[in-house]
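Example 3.2
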Amino acid sequence: MTATLTFHGAARTVTGSCMEVVAGSARILIDYGLFQGSRTLETLNHGPLPFDVAGLDAVILTHAHIDHAGLLPRLTALGYAGTIWCTPQTADLLRPMLADSGRIHEYEAERRNRRRDRAGDEPITPTYTEADALAAVALARPVALEAWFEPAPGLRARLWNAGHILGAASVELEADGVRLLFSGDLGPDNKTFLPNPETAKGFDHVVCEATYGDTSREKVTLHQRRRHLAEEINTALAAGGNLVIPAFALERTQELLLDIAMLSKAGAIGNAQLFVDSPLANRVTEVFRAHVGELEDTGGRDVFAHPAIHTTQSALDSMRLNSVSGAIIIAASGMCEAGRIRHHLVHNLPRRDSTILFVGFQAQGSLGRVILDGAQRVRISGRDIAVRSGIRQISSYSAHADRNELLDWITAAGPIAGSLFLDHGEQDAIDVLAAEARTRNLATSIITPEMGDCYRLAPGKPARRIRRGAQSRRSAVGRDWQNDYAELATGLKRRLAAIEDDRARSRAIARMRRVLDDYDRNRKRHS
């Protein structure tokens, strides 16, 4: 018998991580994450599941980020009652992360149903609820790093430190005589809080993430990173407005809190006041406090308490920040796709004296990516928002390994007797990493799977694709028509107003209407 490996997510995109391994009668998932980005990609979160929940034996979870864990509650909502294997730290983080995600799904469904532009449409139901999320949390079973366990009959696995976030792990799996290694998300060398990634050696097949496969970052020390952050803070606040930082609630916010506390203590940022407007980030910080003895760069002390750091809880507290100036505001989500960051963008993007500072990866099709790519106007919750604020970026806070660090990890895991799979990356990043891996002869077979592709795995031989994914899933990757529509709609009124007179404007509108009418007539003719 041979094993099979199917990529249900994060194939040529960076969210929705999910792989299915079948060996004999055993069937397990490696991660089950939420898709984030374009509206088309997000439809995969609540569409038909690409695997059979009833036949699922177990889930092995690499870490608690929502793009790797965020669809676990869908499993429990559909009756899954098996084990979710993970590290103890990941198990502790799942409660705040998944419960918050459930509340967001409930709130977003309610909010969209109230929008005037959805009047008469079918009501949106949440992808899952907070109750579904808590049911998933109850299935977590902690296991220590490098300790062997049996996720399903005939399978053996152990976890290795991935150096990405608190509790993040790579997965070593023995399935039907085949040795597999799944990187999960790998952290950079010398990351705050965590030791460098580790791995075993000598595998039949290795699956490695490629988020920054096309990027070679300049090596930056902790001191240099803090100095750069201080420069951004001082420049932004000197303009008189706010410095708004979209940040992932897990790990990125805690790194920023540590650095800002150190800078404030050293007098490097004056009397700057920081507001953490993320109840989730505050709850995650409590988990970090509980594990502070395991974290590097803390000396075993609570490094997150400082007079300059203020936290908000209620929505009213959050709204009060709309009237402040000269403050640092950290809010989630990191890619601006949901949460309180969106109303801070509504209030600060139009201000020429405010600054938006990006400190994390922005997936293709996400609002954060649209802003970072230079959009002059954006759509947020149905509103047309002008972008007049400063837009800045710091890359040294990345929780992901860069190209050279990924290649070093792959080398350390070698020799690879069968195939090297590159996933969890956009197409350009994967192509560059694949080319460099070929140049270094890291594997004779290098595969860049698409969504839904299924491969047959054998010991010591290249993997063979036995099934392609559905076109509907493969084509969901990247920008979609709704990105294009938002880009057109945000500037449409302004462009019409720039036309010389009312009669010419009416002619322009009539032409646009004729284009849509022609499409409608052709569709009916061929239906």
